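Long-time lurker. I teach an intro course on protein structure, and each term I like to show students one example going from raw sequence to a predicted 3D structure in token notation. This year I'd like something fresh instead of my usual example. Would anyone be willing to generate the tokens for the chain below so I can use it in lecture? Attribution to the forum is fine with me.
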Amino acid sequence: MKSVNSRLVSSSTYSSVRQQLKLPNQRAFARPRYLNTVSTPAPKRRLVRALALATTAALAGTIGYALAQESQSDYRSSYRRRAADLPSNYGSDEDFRRGIAELRAHFTEPGTFSTDPDALHAHGFSMNSYHDGAPHSVVVFPQSTDDVVWVMKVATRYKIPVIPYSGGTSLEGNFSGHARGGICVDMSEMNKIIKINEADSDLVCQAGASWMDINATLKEKGIPLFFPLDPSPAATIGGMISTGCSGTNAVRYGTAKAEWFLNVTVVLPSGEVIKTRRRARKSSAGFDTTKLFIGAEGTLGIVTEATLRLAPLLDTNVAVCQFPNVRDATEAVIEILNKGVSLQCVELCDDDFMRATNVHGQSERKYPEKDSLYFKFQGSQETIKHSAATVRSIAAKHGGTGFSLASSENEAADLWADRKNALYSSLALRPGAKGWSTDVCVPISKLPQLVYETKKDLAEVGIVSTIVGHVGDGNFHSLLLFDSEDELQRVKSAVHRMVERAIALEGTCTGEHGVGIGKKEYLYEELGEGTVELMKTVKMAIDPLNIMNPGKLYPERPVEMD
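-- Reply from a regular --
Happy to contribute to a lecture. Here you go:
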């Protein structure tokens, strides 16, 4: 395509240059000799013509090449889509009063409607993040998709912001209240498993269902299947979809953006209900509209039901191993993954985290305070035994020591609990301190550099922190501790530098926490102007009033781009 464009540019430029040089028409060069009445000697005339043509070709070629190279060097600028700023013209105080009155008249069952200040505050702020928030105007607890339809019609009629709320575990201000106020739709009452299709390895549930409750139910029923996405223990399906979650199992099973959600039922801002596709395991019928809502953070509609794909439940075992540094540990993981070892999880815990685990004192063992890897193997006992032997050998090759494989289910559970107890263990390093949790993700080979530079940066500014990472994905989490406003500002600056570092290493500002308020400023840099403006175009097509979770995900256009 570029060569065609270059030819077009060259042709137009050639015509322009010919006109400026006052060259004769092309056909004049082909006229018969007997029509030639110019007295200039033929050799000199041919030389002038040749020089003119050469000059024209050189100019045209140079211009065409320059234009082509400009397009190649900045692919994001090859097409300029400029969406209008998202609107923020919400209803008047009287509109809000009328809307809330209509909601009160509809949600008459006890516990389904609240304007209690404590409830409004609890739903509008998160104890897990330190981004700006605001209390909502009202909180409703729908019992069905029809209830959500009612809410959306009221919100659209009176131009009231709507903020979906799921498990409340988000870390980037994803459900914070809007400054103008709004309707918080708490989906926790819609928590039922509607149908389990064991033969098809899937189930249908409501958005408020917890992934842990789903797996517990499958176990109680003796169904040897499980849902493998494992974010925060309190996370629910609606929030997991909205933030595009993942967890420790991602190295084996991928993320929410894989095929684990076969379809979703969504109430759009207009009140229209759609189901994104049928229950078939795969489909090539049109756009994959399911993924349109995965990672949209409730800005396009409210998910009320989903069909989840399940995986076979296999035996597992856990091992831990220490390494001289993060680079050696990461290189060991790269080789292990390339060998095709049957791993369900592989987790990096830095030396500070191992020290925190010892300080916390809840573990059954005392760990060497060195950069460590936790492995979770899966498969038959023979497969696990073979995988563990392979990993032990590769780890030793990269300086790994103290490889320890659990000898019982209880020991395996205790080992894994030490890794999963990251928050409380890390807080033990500074009793009484608060923690800012953030995540970034880079190509696996870039992880050692990112961890090294981040730890060096945090040490230089005096911030106590721990790092744990889904090293098989290049994704790491850091908990930065603080107990004063001055330290909080230093933490914010350090997180900013961490994100910039990750993006410079071909990574992302968030591997699994989502964007919310906290990370949206980085999207233009990470995704490029064209991609962000396309996201806004989709947003405006579905939610032209911008009432769905406003202020999240979509960044304001940087001044330097205007």
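Some talking points for your students: Residues 364 and 414 are 7 Å apart (CA to CA). The chain has three domains: 2-73, 90-313+546-554, 316-504.
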